[in-house]
Design goal:
Length: about 110
């Protein structure tokens, strides 16, 4: 479940999405990544980028994260000759999750 909490109450919880830091005329990029566990030391930085509340992800018993679910589904439907590759975090899907060795592809070496 995704819920909004005060940053001070987010210690020990995982962020539900990336948080961007913007310094006008300078830096724009990730300050915190989705899934990062908030620590007490993170509170001043969160407040400095204007975050008094953040969205955190909590999973109830029996629930799995969307990326874990996607990996499980990919493994369940992969046919013979497919080799799982490392999933890329970011969009709730394991991109390029499977590939066939060249000798099993049409037009490949036999």
């Amino acid at each position: 479940m995704i819920k909004e909490v005060k940053v001070e109450e987010a210690i020990g919880l995982a962020l539900a999405h990336d948080l961007t830091k913007v310094i006008p005329g300078g830096f724009k990029g990730p300050a915190f990544k989705r899934g990062q566990i908030i620590t007490k030391n993170d509170i001043p930085e969160l407040l400095s980028i204007g975050k008094e509340h953040v969205f955190v992800l909590t999973l109830d018993e029996g629930e799995v994260h969307e990326e874990e679910a996607a990996i499980r589904i990919a493994k369940a439907v992969m046919g013979n000759g497919f080799k799982p590759l490392a999933a890329q975090r970011g969009q709730g899907k394991p991109e390029n999750y499977g590939s066939r060795p060249a000798e099993n592809q049409r037009g490949g070496s036999r």
